[in-house]
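job 3f2a | input accepted
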Amino acid sequence: MSYFNTPISKVSTQIYFSKMSFVGNTSALDYLDFPVPIFNNISLTRNSDNLVIPTGHYLISAATGVNNSNLITNAINWSVEQDGVIVGNRGSSTQNNKVGTDSSFAAITVLTGTSIIKVQVTDQVGTTSIDTNTSSIQIQRVDL
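job 3f2a | predicted structure (144 res):
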């Protein structure tokens, strides 16, 4: 039997959920845009291609749907960027011997002030555009 020497405190999770978009064909180093969120109870600032987030612990998931004519030769990779630095693992739309796309994930902590979050196309092969209906970002936040 286990006993806790310290009380367990409740943690309240806040969520930001939005589609992602991009006008035209993508290129490497492009940033995806964040339209009006579907749900948001995090006190953050939304700009066209970035989110300014306050202190806290975050889990970020970005899934990108890609329009293209050939699932293997036309593809992108993308990553979450925090203050100009790629963080977490990258997502990929390459569908060689698999079904669907991989999401990019990042677990980050903002200790003081704010941090700027973006989703960047890190690699581009062939010609692709973003399918807004199947592209989304989900951010979960808990207090420090």
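job 3f2a | The chain has one domain: 14-142.
job 3f2a | closed
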